[in-house]
Specification:
The chain is of the alpha+beta class and about 775 residues long. Helices cover about 30% and strands about 20% of the residues. It comes from Companilactobacillus kimchii DSM 13961 = JCM 10707.
């Protein structure tokens, strides 16, 4: 790891992208092929901005300037979440059946100038039984990050797409500016489009493992260590070999497993706990090396890679290899004052900005800096964390008002007063102040914080808390004013937990006993939202410990995109460290044990995979429209009936309750944030209750992301092996990036991980990176 830090000047230069990361798809054997060509009847047509030149049966050149001085027709006049338009080439297809083929190939010569991350969007339309694009415009679109000044053949796995009646394909580009607003040009030459049938199609759907499903980075010494192969595998035993000497250290019989997920063969080597670097050998197949050791042995090398991604997302700062100083003309205004709303980190694959997400990333950076023993890495994490603090400070307008978010999908010209300026939202919502208070007070208590900064953070955290509490008493549980604020789905239960954490931290830094009274009040409110009596299940057991969204117990707390499950655990942990009565301590600890037991209960529905289920759902939750609409954004009325369909795809555990392995979701899909939030919660509860099973449950979620999933694929770009390009359309590929996560197809409850890059499931997201670091810090500290 020190070599990596030295090579990148302590991560002030981005880690180089592996050159052969997509070699698996490139090397497949083609056994049938068919050209896709224009005809006299159906020719390539241009639409929107830019131009289409050099048109032939076999291809075209698509061109556009890097920006325009007007918004495209139909785009919002304020430029919210848009670039400078789109340039597109499309080809009508005569209802052709492409089911015989499972891959598309095309050659692109990229000749762009001053374009940050040139890319191209492929789209495909099917008018058969299942329509694509789907109603949310997620399925059927794929964004490829191109290599400039390079001609390359790109391959696209379409094996799980409906394609029995193809009516159109298209290639387009979202025009989104240039490097430092230097005049530039987008230009790509595309030709030789073909349909292909390959010998070994990469699976993208279902629980059956592709090759050997194992944790690419490794396993903790005393946890359950399981790898998974298809039930069709003919081997009856497997070996663990020393990666250096190639000596066999363990031979074991393979176990057969049949359960609700399907039929599998299980490679269980849990009883081998000797630290070292090993490989799994199964017949003529052998895995890449992985570690057996402590949590720190396994995960510490992922930290600089995730930091690399976070650094690459810096806003307002020139990142060598991506962009110059940016977004100085994204501005926020309040009471005659104006600031440039740049700083912190871009939120995702686009260039939007969220104060709360940057604040949560800041907290994670200070926590991991405090947890790691590597001095070089700790200092670099501390530096990045201070970049986040700077953003929090500069966006404070006083009296509880903060510049909170901005919807930006373009590189602007940095000149205030021109047409491409963006206006950030400014709010004084009490929830944001409670959350900011808890974050800043927590950072102030990390041992690596200097005294001057510690004092500043303590003063701000107390100030934010007092402002929030005053406003809260006037309008309890006030909702965010706009859905684009990423705390919009906050329930009363989560709200209560946040107040407990903030008040507890204020007590820790002031020792003022008035904060203890607030902790007691809102801790009691929080546990009033918890199931204490218990649901009687079909198997005769009683399930309790889970939280509802409020004290009415009508809708259970679960997450489908934005996820802050860990706040329950933080509330328990914070409250139980304070000087409270023995009676309260006993009650709260009993409730904490119930909550921990609930988290462990969710494990069994996904075995043999380590991914935790998303939670328990009641069949009546879709009747609570107010709750439903804040949980599920950008939906139509069909979502209310689809809710029932999705529940029935899960596991019914009682007359009115179901477990969903993946969340109920609609437009926003991908569960990295959901499982990592739960992992963070499990790790905190494991430490609080001295429960190693909960610690291992947290660790298991990291294993799922780094390869121990049905696709034998690491979701972290540049870590583990067999990773794919993700949806990072603005800044391009970055080592350490994490996507929103594995999704499901339609209303199913099985994993779906297509090669297609699109929001939200494949979109890189600062939130997933934040929760990764938070979970690792809890495991290794």
């Amino acid at each position: 790891m020190d070599d990596l830090l030295d090579q990148t000047n302590l991560l002030h230069k981005l880690i180089s992208i592996p050159k052969d990361f997509d070699s698996n798809e490139n090397n497949k054997k083609v056994i049938a092929k068919k050209s896709v060509r224009a005809s006299e009847k159906n020719q390539w047509k241009h639409s929107k901005r830019g131009s289409l030149t050099n048109v032939s049966k076999d291809g075209f050149t698509l061109e556009a300037p890097s920006r325009y001085d007007s918004w495209a027709p139909g785009d919002p006049t304020d430029g919210d979440y848009v670039g400078y338009g789109n340039t597109k080439a499309s080809l009508k297809i005569d209802n052709e059946n492409w089911q015989e083929y499972d891959r598309l190939a095309f050659k692109i010569n990229t000749k762009c100038s001053e374009v940050i991350n040139p890319n191209i969007i492929f789209e495909i339309h099917n008018d058969g039984k299942q329509k694509i694009p789907d109603q949310y415009n997620r399925e059927g679109y794929h964004v490829i990050n191109l290599i400039n000044n390079c001609e390359k053949t790109y391959f696209l796995n379409i094996s799980d797409l409906p394609r029995e009646k193809i009516t159109e394909i298209g290639f387009s580009y979202e025009i989104n500016g240039s490097y430092m607003d230097i005049p530039g040009e987008y230009k790509v030459e595309l030709k030789n489009i073909s349909l292909q049938k390959v010998l070994d199609v990469t699976p993208t759907h279902g629980w059956e493992p592709n090759k050997i499903s194992y944790s690419h980075d490794g396993y903790q010494n005393d946890e359950r260590k399981v790898a998974i192969v298809s039930a069709d595998d003919s081997n009856v035993e497997f070996s663990i070999i020393d990666a250096e000497t190639k000596n066999t250290v363990l031979n074991k019989k393979i176990k057969n497993l049949s359960n609700g997920l399907g039929n599998f063969k299980i490679l269980d080597f849990s009883d081998f706990d000797q630290s070292g670097i090993y490989q799994i050998k199964l017949g003529d197949k052998i895995t890449a090396p992985f570690k057996i050791g402590t949590y720190e042995d396994i995960w510490v090398k992922s930290i600089p890679k995730v930091l690399n991604f976070i650094y690459g997302e810096r806003c307002g700062y020139p990142v060598l290899g991506i962009h110059g100083t940016c977004h100085e003309d994204v501005i926020a205004k309040k009471d005659g004052k104006t600031i440039s709303y740049n700083g912190g980190w871009h939120d995702a694959g686009d260039l939007s900005q969220q104060l709360i997400h940057s604040a949560e990333a800041t907290q994670a950076l200070f926590r991991i800096a405090n947890a790691t023993d590597n001095q070089k890495l700790s200092e670099r994490l501390l530096e990045e964390g201070n970049w986040g603090l700077d953003f929090i400070f500069k966006t404070d307008f006083g009296n509880g008002f903060h510049a909170t978010s901005a919807g930006v999908s373009r590189w602007t010209d940095n000149m205030i007063g021109t047409m491409d300026d963006a206006l950030a939202r400014v709010h004084d919502n009490p929830y944001e102040n409670f959350l900011l208070s808890s974050i800043l007070a927590d950072i102030s208590q990390q041992k690596i914080i200097g005294q001057d900064m510690k004092k500043r953070l303590e003063q701000l955290s107390v100030s934010y808390f007092e402002i929030a509490l005053k406003r809260f008493k006037q309008a309890p549980y006030e909702k965010e004013p706009i859905m684009w604020e990423h705390t919009y789905n906050t329930s009363k239960a989560i709200y209560n937990a946040t107040i407990v954490i903030a008040a507890g931290n204020c007590y820790s830094v002031t020792k003022n006993e008035k904060y203890l009274s607030t902790v007691i009040e809102f801790m009691n409110r929080m546990i009033n939202c918890q199931e204490s009596k218990g649901l009687e299940l079909f198997d005769g057991t009683i399930l309790k410990g889970m939280f509802y969204r409020d004290a009415s117990h009508k809708v259970l707390q679960h997450f489908n995109h934005q996820a802050r499950e860990m706040l329950f655990a933080q509330a328990f942990s914070t409250a139980l460290k304070l000087p409270i009565s023995d009676v309260l301590r006993d009650i709260w600890k009993y409730r904490a044990r119930d909550y921990g037991a609930y988290l462990l209960y969710l494990r069994k529905f996904t075995y043999p995979y380590p991914m935790i289920s998303s939670g328990v759902y009641l069949d009546s939750e879709n009747t609570d429209k107010e709750s439903f609409d804040v949980q599920h954004l950008l939906i139509d009325d069909s979502a209310y009936s689809e809710y029932e369909t999705q529940l029935k795809a899960g596991v019914q555990i009682s007359k009115h309750a179901y477990v969903r392995r993946f969340p109920v979701w609609f437009s926003f899909r991908g569960n990295d944030s959901v499982i990592l939030s739960t992992a963070n919660s499990a790790a905190i509860m494991g430490r609080l209750l001295k429960n190693e099973e909960l610690m291992n449950l947290a660790n298991a979620q990291l294993r799922w992301i780094i390869g121990n999933n049905p696709f034998d694929q690491s979701l972290m770009f540049g870590e583990g092996n067999n990773y794919q390009q993700e949806y990072s359309n603005s800044s391009g590929d970055m080592v350490g990036e994490l996507p929103v996560g594995i999704e499901t197809k339609d209303d199913e409850d099985v994993p779906y991980w297509p090669q297609f890059n699109n929001a939200t499931y494949k979109e890189v997201w600062i939130v997933a990176a934040t929760k990764w670091l938070s979970t690792v810090s809890e495991l290794i500290k």
